[in-house]
């Protein structure tokens, strides 16, 4: 299909001027010199045909306005002209032809929520409303209103330019320095004067061909391949000429209204490419295609230059029609020149060349397979483009490589006789009398309008197979594609008109929205109208027809039995639903229930009632596993909708069924719903449809369920009983009001949204979280019940499955493995221990062959036999609440046929009806109606991963650059995702556009009863009746967020109070335990103080010994002066004196050493004793007794202090226990206060929701009253604003007349 890419900067323009634009091109050139020169009238055609691969050629009739000639090659001067045109500049005069669109630099913006909070705080301090701060300043007041509205919508993600914030701050009397961090302000001010261009300069339109065309061209002889390329260029020019007629206009304003204005044609250049990008370092495969770069401006008939195609939207709308026409022209020309015939591929839907084998086509599709393997076959165009860009290889230098010879050799290596194959595929022009004869001089045979209508309007595969309506632009694409041998370009629109005129198919719809673009006419098909009318008629005709009606007493008895069996009492809304379904007697009834409202449980209560009176019942669900879940949850035997439709087709239908419960009815398409209701009318079966229009929509055209609910005035279950987290509940409530962006912001604030840059990073991060979360569960069956990974697309689920399997294999958790070959060349590796998902229905119990294996079951591979049969085991619930495990063997043929896939991850659609503990959701590809069920699957935590780069438009990424930090990454992911979600619309009834919507069946209240709606200004009945709609929605969202936050805080305080109360009741008490521990510390410190005392004593004794030794030593030294005779007379000798001197010298040294050691040991023991106390957790508690003061020098004094502290410990224990008891009591009081506040907030939210409900009811049932209320409310608000402004002005005037003597400081 044709791809359109916006070009927003110089680099992207330059890339398109290189000649390869991301594809491989040759450098040796392949001209068409061997062909004869065409007639003069074909000069332009000849110039284009004579181009080489990679050569840029001008295209578009508007080029003459800037001195360029269509069909000529761009030389260096031409490239310079192309650069100028892309900038909106005339290449010859330098005149700026279109104004450059500039926006503030993203770094010059700051988050607005912080400023709003600062203004609200200032207003509260001043005792006024925030808007009063801007009274008398209308421009800033208007900006303030816009800012608050955007912050309400986007929360922290809304950013405002710093100069605007500065003006608002000055008007409100604030300083930005008091609101934002200095670094934030510095960065914003550094970029304040910078502007970035947001104008799309040009569009890159790619026209490609089925792979068989490229294959045939690649293998044709040289002369014929040049002819084939020539006809491709002719098809390009003819299709582009039609596109030029469709989108070659500008928009001009006149009297405040826009209108289309013709131009002289488009401006652009094209380039032919012959090869895909290299794969695995080998030259690329044959891929003949054309890039057309269309400059985003044209000269209008009034002489002014303007952007084209309504801002490019019309180009995107007509891209498929251009692509289909281009391919149709190639088919026609290839048939005329080469006799090529076509067969539509059942796999891709493309018209492939007969005679080119599919295996060879696949062999030449390595690059496409590579991109599909990374992005997924079901990925969006944008995602495939992103992956293609990220995985591009550098160009090969193939100047010496003959690619066509290489391609031929590869085909021969596969065993193909290339010449015979080419001869069969391109036998030559058809003869006038042969089977390939053309219908005349106008071109190839075209199917009749009747045949084309039967194809393009086919209910299963046509334009309304999945959508209820289509545009003429879409019809053009399908009509062109319905012609196997193509058609003339000029015939397409007339043929489409004739197809519309075929009786019994198309139905024109009234115009809707802007009619500025081309082919905006919209249509539906008659079978859609008939299906809708059937749904409406059955809902109306069978209202209150007495079907399956029980008495109130019988219903009450059923409810009582259910409550006893279930062990809980139904809430008021649940009881109301059951009573209505059992007693109202409507042949068609409907119940809307939010996710987690307990819809299936209520069906069990109804079943009990039907059993009591002998009614028969059955259920219907879209999938077999959903039908089984309905049976296990309610006791209602169920089968798939497809199975019921087959029974209807076979003639059995609903015979013998009194009540049919249609589960997840919003997912049932209108055609199927109409068939079920028609059959139910025939058999008198009551149909109860249960679902939620805000969850997954029907695969086909839907909306019938919501219409039935409206017509019959069905009940609605609004209380979410699944999510435990109050913040998640609040976010989901906000989501259902339509404020999806606010809901996402609230989830992000609570850490439930995780942003990465790339899709690969997002999947890796999600799998890391999965790997951590699964560790909480005892076995794999517990993991299956409590943890699920979800994705919107099959391919993403497959990638996540492969990643999860790899993690388990690396952890050594998987056993014996086998690789199974699947159809289409795919493979599936299974190992013992792997989690798998069943992908087929095998009702074995019906033939006595074991338990049923149903599509959607998740199981564990428990054995792989020697013959590679696979045993799977799964856990199911019994009727009494216990569980059992079932087992079954699957043959190799069953596995090879796709009966199993890995089951760690699944699609969101496959998870419908599932309730788990934790859900990890990969959000790329999920629309609003898929994301909501995805983020409501789990009770405890629902977490969402978003890849920013894959969500942002390429032009946005080019303009903003790479995110600077995690905060910006998350902000941009949320902004891009919210923008996508805003595009999603619920299915509606297209018939309402052809006639007034039918009135509900339930009679409206008579006019006299209309005053039952309280007056909007009755404050007692409607406390929020005076709020404008926008403020009402904002107040509700804010109140829900506050309620969730307060509930969290209340739960936390309650938990803390319980912990404190439990601690206070423990024996021994906390105080006693503290006293015991402190006593142990004091005892240890005292032991150290005793050691210090002992060491002090030893030091004193050592000092005395030293003093005695020193005295003796001195006497001996004094005797050394005496003579030997004197010494002999004294009874001694000099030798004895020397020995004594040595002895006492040693004794002195030893005593002094011991003294020093003891003194040091005593000091160390004192320090250690005091440090033992000071560094203990009890020092602060004993501060009053000197525990934190300097250590006493005397150990005795220290021990006295320790003794005093020990004596204080009983008092300390009492103080601690008293404080703990007081803290527990305070926590209880705070918890009560928070619970009260949360209850008040919830009541306020209910009142706000009730006000919304009253307004909706008033609008529906008393529209004149509603209009009058709105007018009165607006008038009252304007009056209040005038009075507020007057008060503010009076306050300023009073302040201005105040004199210094009035108590105002003058600074003197």
From TrEMBL:
Transmembrane stretches, start-end: none
Residue ranges of domain TrwC relaxase in the record: 46-413
Coiled coil: 1134-1168
The keyword Protein biosynthesis is annotated on this UniProt entry: no
Region feature (Disordered): 1246-1308
Identification of the protein by name: Conjugative relaxase-like TrwC/TraI family protein
Keywords: Coiled coil
Alphabetized Gene3D superfamilies for the sequence: 2.30.30.940, P-loop containing nucleotide triphosphate hydrolases (3.40.50.300)
Residue ranges, compositional bias (Basic and acidic residues): 1290-1300
Matching InterPro entries: P-loop_NTPase, TrwC
Organism: Streptomyces griseomycini
């Amino acid at each position: 299909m044709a791809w359109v890419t916006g070009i927003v900067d110089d680099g992207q323009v330059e890339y398109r001027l290189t000649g390869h634009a991301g594809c491989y091109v040759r450098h040796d050139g392949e001209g068409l010199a061997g062909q004869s020169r065409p007639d003069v009238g074909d000069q332009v055609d000849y110039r284009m045909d004579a181009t080489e691969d990679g050569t840029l050629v001008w295209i578009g009739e508007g080029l003459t306005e800037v001195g360029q000639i269509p069909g000529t090659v761009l030389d260096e001067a031409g490239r310079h002209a192309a650069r100028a045109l892309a900038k909106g500049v005339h290449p010859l005069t330098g005149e700026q032809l279109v104004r450059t669109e500039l926006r503030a630099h993203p770094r010059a913006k700051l988050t607005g929520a912080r400023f709003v909070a600062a203004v609200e705080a200032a207003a509260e301090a001043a005792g006024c409303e925030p808007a009063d701060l801007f009274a008398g300043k209308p421009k800033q007041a208007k900006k303030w209103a816009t800012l608050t509205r955007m912050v309400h919508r986007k929360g922290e993600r809304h950013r405002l330019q710093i100069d605007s914030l500065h003006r608002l701050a000055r008007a409100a009397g604030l300083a930005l320095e008091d609101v934002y961090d200095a670094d934030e302000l510095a960065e914003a001010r550094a970029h304040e004067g910078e502007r970035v261009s947001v104008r799309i300069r040009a569009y890159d339109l790619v026209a490609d061909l089925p792979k068989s065309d490229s294959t045939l061209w690649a293998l044709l002889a040289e002369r014929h391949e040049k002819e084939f390329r020539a006809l491709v260029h002719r098809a390009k020019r003819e299709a582009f000429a039609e596109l030029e007629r469709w989108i070659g206009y500008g928009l001009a304003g006149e009297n405040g209204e826009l209108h289309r204005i013709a131009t002289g044609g488009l401006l652009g250049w094209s380039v032919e490419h012959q090869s895909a990008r290299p794969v695995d370092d080998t030259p690329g495969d044959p891929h003949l295609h054309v890039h057309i770069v269309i400059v985003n401006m044209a000269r209008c008939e009034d002489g002014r230059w303007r952007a084209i195609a309504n801002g490019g939207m019309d180009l995107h709308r007509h891209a498929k029609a251009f692509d289909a026409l281009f391919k149709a022209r190639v088919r026609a020309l290839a048939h005329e020149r080469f006799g090529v015939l076509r067969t539509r591929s059942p796999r891709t839907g493309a018209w492939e060349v007969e005679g080119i084998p599919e295996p060879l086509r696949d062999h030449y599709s390595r690059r496409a397979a590579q991109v599909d393997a990374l992005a997924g076959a079901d990925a969006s165009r944008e995602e495939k483009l992103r992956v293609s860009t990220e995985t591009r290889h550098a160009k090969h230098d193939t100047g010496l490589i003959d690619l066509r010879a290489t391609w031929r050799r590869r085909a021969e290596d596969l065993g193909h006789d290339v010449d015979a194959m080419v001869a069969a595929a391109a036998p030559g022009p058809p003869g006038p009398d042969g089977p390939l004869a053309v219908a005349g001089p106008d071109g190839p045979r075209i199917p009749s309008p009747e045949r084309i209508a039967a194809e393009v309007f086919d209910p299963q595969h046509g334009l309304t197979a999945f959508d209820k309506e289509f545009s003429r632009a879409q019809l053009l694409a399908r009509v062109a594609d319905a012609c196997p041998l193509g058609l003339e370009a000029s015939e397409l629109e007339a043929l489409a008109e004739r197809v519309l005129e075929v009786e019994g198919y198309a139905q024109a719809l009234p115009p809707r929205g802007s009619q500025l673009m081309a082919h905006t006419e919209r249509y539906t098909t008659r079978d859609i109208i008939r299906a809708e009318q059937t749904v409406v008629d059955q809902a109306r005709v069978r209202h209150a027809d007495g079907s399956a009606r029980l008495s109130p007493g019988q219903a009450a008895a059923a409810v009582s039995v259910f409550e006893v069996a279930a062990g809980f009492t139904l809430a008021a809304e649940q009881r109301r639903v059951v009573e209505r379904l059992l007693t109202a007697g409507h042949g068609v009834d409907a119940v809307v229930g939010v996710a987690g409202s307990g819809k299936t449980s209520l069906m069990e209560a109804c079943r009990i009632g039907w059993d009591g009176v002998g009614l028969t019942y059955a259920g219907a669900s879209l999938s077999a596993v959903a039908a089984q879940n309905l049976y296990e949850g309610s006791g209602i035997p169920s089968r798939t909708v497809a199975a019921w439709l087959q029974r209807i087709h076979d003639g059995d239908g609903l015979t013998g069924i009194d009540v049919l419960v249609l589960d997840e009815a919003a997912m049932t398409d209108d055609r199927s719903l109409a068939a079920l209701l028609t059959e139910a009318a025939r058999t008198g079966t009551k149909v109860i449809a249960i679902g939620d229009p805000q969850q997954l929509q029907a695969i086909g055209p839907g909306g019938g369920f919501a219409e039935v609910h409206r017509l019959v005035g069905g009940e609605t279950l609004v209380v979410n009983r699944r999510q435990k987290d109050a913040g998640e509940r609040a976010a989901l409530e906000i989501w259902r009001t339509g404020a999806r962006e606010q809901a996402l912001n609230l989830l992000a604030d609570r850490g439930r949204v995780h942003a990465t840059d790339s899709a690969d990073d997002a999947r890796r991060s999600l799998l890391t979280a999965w790997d951590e979360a699964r560790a909480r569960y005892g076995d794999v069956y517990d993991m299956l019940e409590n943890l699920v990974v979800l994705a919107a697309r099959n391919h993403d689920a497959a990638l996540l499955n492969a990643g999860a399997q790899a993690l388990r294999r690396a952890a050594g958790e998987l056993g014996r493995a086998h690789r199974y070959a699947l159809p289409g060349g795919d493979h599936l590796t299974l190992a013992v221990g792997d989690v798998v998902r069943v992908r087929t229905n095998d009702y074995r119990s019906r033939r006595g062959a074991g338990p049923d294996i149903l599509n959607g079951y998740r199981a564990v591979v428990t054995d792989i036999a020697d013959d590679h049969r696979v045993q799977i085991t799964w856990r199911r619930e019994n009727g009494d609440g216990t569980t059992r495990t079932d087992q079954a063997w699957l043959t190799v043929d069953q596995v090879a046929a796709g009966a199993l896939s890995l089951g760690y991850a699944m699609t969101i659609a496959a998870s419908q009806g599932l309730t788990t503990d934790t859900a990890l959701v990969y959000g790329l590809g999920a629309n609003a109606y898929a994301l909501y069920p995805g983020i409501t699957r789990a009770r405890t935590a629902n977490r969402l991963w978003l890849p920013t780069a894959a969500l942002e438009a390429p032009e946005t990424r080019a303009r903003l650059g790479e995110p600077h930090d995690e905060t910006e990454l998350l902000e941009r992911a949320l902004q891009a995702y919210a923008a996508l979600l805003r595009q999603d619309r619920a299915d509606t009834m297209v018939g309402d556009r052809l006639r007034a919507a039918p009135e509900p069946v339930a009679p409206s209240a008579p006019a006299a009863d209309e005053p039952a709606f309280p007056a909007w200004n009755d404050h007692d009945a409607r406390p929020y009746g005076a709020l404008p709609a926008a403020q009402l929605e904002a107040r509700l969202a804010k109140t829900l967020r506050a309620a969730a936050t307060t509930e969290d805080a209340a739960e936390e305080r309650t938990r803390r109070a319980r912990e404190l109360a439990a601690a206070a009741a423990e024996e021994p008490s906390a105080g006693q335990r503290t006293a015991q521990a402190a006593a142990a510390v004091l005892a240890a410190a005292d032991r150290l103080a005793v050691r210090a005392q002992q060491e002090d004593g030893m030091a004193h004794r050592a000092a005395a010994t030293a003093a005695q030794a020193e005295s003796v030593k001195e006497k001996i030294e004094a005797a050394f002066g005496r003579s030997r005779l004197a010494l002999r007379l004294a009874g001694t000798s000099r030798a004895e004196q020397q020995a004594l001197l040595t002895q006492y010298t040693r004794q002195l040294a030893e005593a002094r050493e011991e003294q020093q050691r003891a003194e040091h040991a005593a000091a160390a023991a004192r320090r250690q004793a005091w440090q033992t106390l000071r560094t203990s957790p009890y020092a602060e508690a004993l501060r009053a007794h000197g525990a934190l003061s300097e250590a006493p020098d005397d150990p005795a004094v220290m021990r006295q202090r320790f003794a005093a502290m020990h004596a204080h410990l009983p008092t300390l224990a009492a103080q601690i226990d008293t404080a703990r008891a007081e803290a527990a009591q305070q926590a209880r009081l705070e918890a009560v206060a928070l619970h009260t506040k949360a209850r008040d907030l919830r009541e306020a939210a209910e009142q706000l929701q009730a006000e919304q409900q009253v307004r909706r009811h008033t609008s529906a049932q008393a529209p004149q009253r509603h209009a009058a209320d709105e007018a009165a409310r607006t008038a009252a608000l304007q009056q209040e604003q005038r009075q507020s402004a007057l008060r503010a002005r009076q306050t300023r005037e009073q302040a201005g007349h105040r004199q210094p003597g009035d108590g105002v400081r003058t600074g003197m």
